[in-house]
Amino acid sequence: MKNHITNAISDFFFEYETPRQVLVRNRRVGVVCRIIQLGVLAYIIGWVFIYEKGYQSTDTAISSVFTKMKGVGYTSVNGNERVWDVADYVFPPQGDSSFVVMTNYIITEGQNMGKCPELKGKHNCSSDADCEGGSYKRTGHGEMTGICVNATKTCEVLAWCPIEDDHVIPYPPMLMSAENYTLFIKNSITFPLFGVTRSNLVEGVDASYISKCLYHPENAPLCPIFKLGDIVKLSGFNFETIAQVGGAIGIEIDWTCNLDVNVKHCKPQYNFHGLYGNPDETDKARASVGYNFRYAKHYLENKTEKRTLLKVFGIRLDIIVQSLARKFDIIPTLTAIGSGVGIFGVATVVCDLMLLYLLPKREFYKNMKFKHTDSHIQNPDSEAGSIETDLSQK
Q: Residue 238: which residues within 8 A CB-CB, separation 6 or more?
């Protein structure tokens, strides 16, 4: 046991391995080797260089987006006519990259703080015992007073009265005219690695062009002015359906640029995606359909605070910038070439496995590939003669 350990330690410190090249004339092994090498070469050229652009460095952009809506809406409810402009139907009004355009609403006017019965079906009761005073219900509108109102058979609450009734959503939508609103998008990007700055107002998109253009995916793909109805259509929605209950649409600005060519060819591409509120969904029992929120306008009347409450249904627009720039760089090029050369070693490994473990003459190939020498051998000619003798015997 001690001798084995001593020999193992001695072999580890005092032996040296060097590759030995053996030329093997075997058709099967040769064909396999060349097929693997051709596959590796095709992978390097086709995938690494052509598809993945392995010879280029990449960078993503820092971007800024601001928006501006234009258009006027008109409603007439119970003889009350009203015109809606941008300040009325865009939330928030600052021109952000994410905002809501109101297309429908439920209005409750003249609310003031007081006591009134809850809506039917909300908190039904048969006696005061069913209405615990000072408590709240998650879906309620205020604090229960402990009184059951016989006329409605619902609990009385301290709240903004009259209570909003939103059981019936107006149809057709109140602001169908929103289909003709226009959206102007201004987007600026910078690729810091390459020092390139671009805007979606590219060459040829000047004040004269903007004053008369309207985006079309084929006829005017670079126009930064979009009709809201076209955005909805290109995202796969029906405008009347999404306008009634609301929904969300993503506007993607794609900057995929090859900076090895003239920078003027770096131009945006617009894509539109319906994010939720899809009218094609057939599950009528699905929860939280569409998109809505509430806001109130407060005022004083005869020194009494009142408010007008609006439940707004709208189209939420999220503008998303995707970017990727590429440019030739010697470092990733050399890295890709070096990796490819390393992969060529796979052919050698596979062929060695065939020679040493699969072919009928594997013992012969093992003897040819591995040679053990000792330092006391002084006559290389005698060694070569012995190898020739072995080969002739085979």
A: 232, 279
- The string of DSSP letters for 58-123 reads EE--EEEEEEEEE--EEEEETTEEEEE-HHHHEESTT--SEEEEEEEEEEEEEEEEEEEEPPTTTS
pLDDT in tens, 310-337: 999 999 999 999 999 988 877 777 887 7
292: which 2 tokens? 């809505």
Instruction: Write the DSSP assignment of 29-67 as a string of letters.
Output: HHHHHHHHHHHHHHIIIIIIIIIS-TTEEEE--EEEEEE
DSSP designation for 235: T
Query: How many whole angstroms separate alpha carbon 321 and alpha carbon 187?
Result: 9
Residue carrying the six token digits 């609301």: 246
For the stretch 45-71, pLDDT in tens is 888 777 777 777 888 999 999 999 999
- Token couple for 351: 């062929």
The pTM for the full model equals: 0.73
AA identity, residue 266: C
